[in-house]
Amino acid sequence: DRDRLFPHLLPLWSRRQRKASVPMGKGGEQGGDSGEPAAQIRFYTWEEIQKHNLRTDKWLVIERKVYNVTKWANRHPGGQRVISHCAGEDATDAFQAFHINPTLVQKFLKPLLIGELAPGEPSQDRDKNSGSLPSLTLLLPVLLQSQLVEDFRTLRKTAEDMNLFRASPLFFSLYLGHIIAMEVLAWFMVSYFGTGWIATLILACILTTSQAQAGWLQHDFGHLSVFKKSSWNHIVHKFVIGHLKGASANWWNHRHFQHHAKPNIFRKDPDVNMLHIFVLGDTQPVEVRKSRENMEKYCLRGPGRVVVQIQELAPIYGKRKLKYLPYNHQHEYFFLSEYPPSLFPFPGMPLALPALTMSADQLLKSQLIPPFLRTLCSSPSCHTASHPSDGQTISLCLAVFPPLLIPVYFQIQIISTMIRRRFWADLAWAISYYLRYFITYIPFYGVLGSLCLLTFVRFLESHWFVWVTQMNHIPMEIDSEKHRDWLSSQMAATCNIEQSFFNDWFTGHLNFQIEHHLFPTMPRHNFWKVKPLVKSLCAKYGVQYEEKPLGKAFVDIVG
């Protein structure tokens, strides 16, 4: 294909191939850690580069230069997974999107350089956009696809020239100030009005709002979109997410950057690895259905009962991804479920709950339910008069129970991560949050009352967080890797919510999800300025730009 498309380059290509036989010196394919200058430039084809996308062998391309990041990936400040997701691909746009000072980062890349793309090779890897864009034709010529990428990079340069990547100190100062003001207001509330039910409910709402808004603010600093220097962003990020929320900056970075690099891509985006609770997209439901059918081969049936052989099912669980819940009711239990999807509180549950093939009593007596959950579901409060024995009791218990436990489990999971991975600075900031909280509220509510108040606040915050963060992604395409260019991949996985003062504040400007995903380091108060440029580019190439009202976005999550 190369020779057919670029016949005039054949003589040059032959000379380059002969030169390529000369090794690059110590930097070469061994990882380039020596930093010694290369003796000779080596050229590679995409066919060769795409072979190096393994856990133990990672190459990537940035601005037509080929880098071997195998040994360096574990030292990557953004986490080794996010850089591994780009292995074997052109990572130029991802590199520009995540780094506020690419020139500074080049010093880390220079020792890793092993060559360049061959002159006859396109800048984008050959399979980009193969069957990718939903409304863009699948038959666009290679040159037109390349032009889309170039036009997007021109758009980014235009945004830089418009100073849209420059933050407003006043905006973020006022934003931080209104969060601190709510924290102070909450203390005055309980000090002046006491600990009655009404005062406590108002207090919980104030603290929930403060926590949610602090979550949006830490998101800004985590994306390096406030200060010009990365170090200042990192310091304030640790303060906001640690001291104001009691969480870990490193934990958040390593998880969230993967989401931005590969949004809505199974096994690469942590936010759609939700098989503990939900099946998403068009692919997972089919796989889960096959898994359930396979499970029937390992069931011993008797009159009115199903006994599952755990030991025999174990190999299928690992291979077939057989999971935990009656997914055909997920649109119902979504309303009362979860914080981040990977934090489901029953990690030891061995397999899917066959709630539609077993009666409630039989399921409660089986070994499929953890003892503490079996006790809870056996209580009278868990039963309903309309469906006393058809398995819906279990579904209702699982719908109501997770929100009561997840806020606690969420905190324990983050703290355990900080200890296990030795994020000591993050742990210190998180401890400062709990010290501040308990010193403030134990005098009014006592230890147990303060714990209950914190759990209730986390419960309310979890709903705010889940609805806002999922309304832009869950209704969009969710599938396996399509190897799209940066613009196409982000547009397929995101949509916008109509702008208003309330929507901007309520969502932390995540109603501009498209612009945020295209330009993660852009300060959020500038999204509305770049929006017309993005819409114009999408219209030029027929790329769908989806925007909807807030209410419809909520409905689409469960629709």
Question: Care to describe what's here?
Answer:
By secondary structure, the protein is mostly helical. The protein is built from 23 helices and nine strands. Strands 1-5-4-3-2 form a five-stranded mixed β-sheet. Strands 6-7 form a two-stranded antiparallel sheet. The longest helix is centred in the last third of the chain and has 47 residues, at 424-470. The model is unreliable at 1-36, 129-140, 275-281, 291-324, 326-360 and 366-406 (pLDDT under 50).
Spatial order of strands in the largest sheet = 1-5-4-3-2
Q: What is the 3D form?
A: globular
Look at the helices and sheets and give the structural class.
Answer: mainly alpha
Regions with pLDDT < 50 over 5+ consecutive residues?
1-36, 129-140, 275-281, 291-324, 326-360, 366-406
- The gyration radius over C-alpha positions equals 26 Å
Number of strands: 9
Report the mean per-residue pLDDT as an integer.
75
Helix content: 40-55%
Q: How much β-strand is present in the residues?
A: 5-15%
Distance between the termini: 44 Å
Number of helices: 23
User: How is the biggest beta sheet arranged?
Assistant: 5 strands, mixed
Distinctive features:
mainly alpha; 559 residues; 23 helices; five-stranded mixed beta sheet
